[in-house]
Amino acid sequence: MDRLGRVAKAWRAAVVLALAVLFCAGSLVGDDHWWPFGPWRMFSTSQAATGSVWSTGIEVQTADAPGQWVRAPLTPENVGLNRAEVEGRIPQIEADPSRLGTLARSHAQLRPTSAEWTALRVVRRLIVVVDRKPTGEVRTEVLAQWEAP
Amino acid sequence: MSTGTAGSAVTALTRLGRGVGRRFSGWLFAPMPLSRVAALRVLVFAFVIVDVVLLHTSGWYHGYADPVWYEPLVMGKVLHLPAASVLLVQVLKWGCVVAALAAMTGRAPRVLGWAVAVGWVWYQYVAFSYGKVDHDRADFVVALALLPTVGLAHLSDQRRSEAAGFALRAVQLAAVATYFLSSWAKVRFGGWDWVNSATMVRAVVRRGTPMAQWLLEVPWTLHWFQWVLMGAELTSPVIFLLSEKWRRRAVGGWFVFHAMTYGAITIAFWPHLVMMLAFLPLERYAAWLGERFARLRGGPAPTPPEGDSSPPRDADRSSRAPVGAAG
Prior knowledge:
The structure holds 2 protein chains of 2 kinds. By secondary structure, chain A is of the alpha+beta class. Chain A is 33% helix and 30% strand. Chain A folds into 2 domains: 1-45; 51-147, no CATH class. Chain A has a 4-stranded antiparallel sheet with strand order 2-1-3-4. Chain B is mainly alpha-helical. Helices cover 64% and strands 1% of the residues of chain B. In chain B, strands 1-2 form a two-stranded antiparallel sheet.
């Protein structure tokens, strides 16, 4: 059997201790910016049993069909960012809707063969939930809009 | 109280402290077969390849996102990491693949292992520095960082080593910490009332599969599930007290939970699932697979690793390989 010397054991124990301190500190006071030591908060937020669940998406107009809004996937493959990344920046987008233009540019780079986007808007759908059960009622609002110059 | 009694109390306490320290050290460095580390390494590096190519590709697409969306994390500020570019994500992705393939050969385990660690962590950083951090990928960093510390380990090397035991224990600890600390996060961010909230309803509404829609019709199911999940996470460290047989059942139970989650909302904590394998006698499964493979090819079955079919000699070997291993 291979045994470890005192020094080898001491530094390994110190590493485990340091990791434990960092992970616990991250969980106690850290936030996502501490990654990989941030809190493990998957599905940690509480959702009121009665209220609304919101879901954000984008709608675009293409050069092919101007004036007509169609839903487009808000996915990394399509615009370089995913839904949560856009949802987290709603205040910045509302303050400066021209940011949405960068999504159209990324789309053109990622999907060079599909029709160019001439306008893009962020839409929030509110799904009404009563007693942990969706009622079927959906409300839609437009949060920000960008048009190609 | 006389100085004599105080003195003997101190001596007793010191002795107790030393005893606890020795037991903890014995637990942290409990010798494990090198072949188990070798098997886990193969799985970890194979996972890295599948992960960067297929599973977790948001980092790749951030190469195409405008730098205006870049939001450096603490790690990026400390290390002065730049916003992603198409070139950077290509180097990181294919660098990870090449390094992981090389590391799977088992050669130069430290250099290649840590090269994979740096590449994978940086690639995750690129994925997470655009406003959304995935919360299931932190424990895998521990596996990538500490598995190389074992040094050379061959799949057929049945020797036990304290270095191997330590690396496996560290991986197990990180995996269980994920469960335990995520229950803490639920209390911290969601409050104790999290168990009675509609969090799972929200998850199913937002990304539920057709298979999961009935859960919305029967609201007590998801409500009850939240209680079970919280209970399982809070008691997850108990796995370290279980016998080998029950430990494997506990790991199986967690895998069932993750499979159900995947079926309902297509979310799986992939790297974490690989971490959980550190609880299993992987070298036995590898030997069994090798034997089956040899038999399939019609050749004579190779001799199973020493002690495989003989009765267990100590507590940790009390497990048997799956069906057919002994006969």
